[in-house]
Amino acid sequence: MTQLSRVACDALANVTELLDNATPTNPGAVLDYDLLLDCIHCGLCTAACPTYVETGNENDGPRGRIYLMRAVTDGRLELSPRVERHLELCLDCRACETACPSGVQYGRLIEPFRTAMTEAARGLAMHTKHDDWFHRHILFGLLPCRDKLRRALVPARIAQRLGILQFLQATRLTHLLPANLRRMVDMLPPPERNEGPLPEFLPAVGKRRATVALFIGCIGDAMFRHVHWATVRVLQHNGCDVHVPPKQVCCGAIHFHAGSSEPAREFADQNRAAIEPERFDAIVSNIAGCGSMLKDYGHHWHDADQPIRAAWSEKVRDVNEFLAALGPVRPEGEIHAIATYHDACHLLHAQKIRDAPRELLAQIPGLELRDLPETELCCGAAGTYNLTEPEMSARLSRRKLENIRRTGAQMCIAANAGCALQIAREARAQGLRLKVVHPMQMLDWSYRDESPV
């Protein structure tokens, strides 16, 4: 151990000795202990961690959190509200994995640890923050159910089109809503043209090169169906038969990242049954968070079905990744715009996909793509983090928008629904005219020789 590592560990030990109100649980029992030992405490991850960059607190960085988890696992530290708080503040963006020279699989530490932490508290009949009305009825009861969510959005969409919602926001009457609901209202994007539900099958244009299943998710289909349509048209233009299996459900990320493992496993098994991998060359996702969760089905649950889930996950591809490997048909329609590309955390860090979307966008004639400073730092969306950790999320979204301003871009391109909602909301709040779009929308416009609308 280096002198720097000893100093960091000693500092953490001094802090954690002060923690009180411990709960008699050891969620570290679910971890593969060898994964904890991969961390050499070099600290190179700290500069990549959004919460450490904002707070400067060692306990709010990956190295510190790994130390805390290991100390709890070893029985040297009891789990307490302060320890839990440092772990809960993590966005699970996994930027530390990209920065780590030792290949620490941080996501496979923090995710099961936090899930076990929540389940242990429930097992002891203790109240957790996930037991409130917002988690039960909104995060778990509404957001993962695309049809229910779409119906719930109808009044808001009508209010948007009539200007009622904008009036309520301008007069601050929306502040009468509970804070979580107000944030959801503020995040609601302007309505897009309704192209209707996707059919179950859309044939390739020209010679068929591949057969794929499109994963449509929950929030993605309820709020970003226009992105699904753009994705389908791009895939068709590239010679893909596209199937949209009707019985697919939420990927499970909303529950899993909130510490509710069993419902997430049920969603995983429903998707496995709904999409038969042997029928397709790939299971394609256009939402980074969903794709990351789908690819990790084989890691999250250690039961008899784990090998089957792992084999299913082997077929999952992000749409940018899939098209780059297939060899895209070159788009010819010109788009004269200045844009910047924001790296969604669960695409860059979790799925390790950086070059593919940039290579696709670089083929669009006329498009000027400018580098985004601190593109590797999370925008603060992180699934439902912007609803459950509003203070830290707001700090990160302001930081992200300031970096976007510095590029002078008219458009921000992001391959994740949560990022799009977060960045667009912050732009509206700051009065910045910024169009936030998906890479597939850009390609679709170019293939159809249309201007962004």
Mean pLDDT: 89
Low-confidence stretches: 1-24
The biggest beta sheet reads:
5 strands, mixed
Report the radius of gyration as a whole number of Å.
22 Å
Distance between the termini: 56 Å
Estimated share of beta-strand residues: 5-15%
- So what's the overall shape? globular
CATH topology of the domain at 3-129: Fumarate Reductase Iron-sulfur Protein, Chain B, domain 2
CATH architecture annotation of the domain at 3-129:
Orthogonal Bundle
Kindly provide the name of the CATH class of the domain at 3-129. Mainly Alpha
Helix percentage: 40-55%
Give the number of DSSP strands: 9
Number of alpha- plus pi-helical segments? 25
Short structural description:
By secondary structure, this protein is α/β, with parallel strands linked by helices.
Description:
It is globular and about 65 Å long. The strands form 2 sheets. The chain has a 5-stranded mixed beta sheet. Helices cover 50% and strands 8% of the residues. It has helices spanning 3-16, 33-37, 50-55, 62-74, 81-88, 95-99, 107-123, 133-139, 146-161, 164-170, 179-187, 219-223, 225-237, 253-257, 261-274, 288-295, 297-300, 306-313, 319-326, 345-348, 355-362, 385-388, 390-407, 417-429, 439-447, and strands spanning 201-202, 210-215, 240-243, 282-285, 316-318, 337-342, 367-370, 411-414, 435-437. The termini are far apart. Among the domains are: 3-129, Orthogonal Bundle (Fumarate Reductase Iron-sulfur Protein, Chain B, domain 2); 133-187, no CATH class.
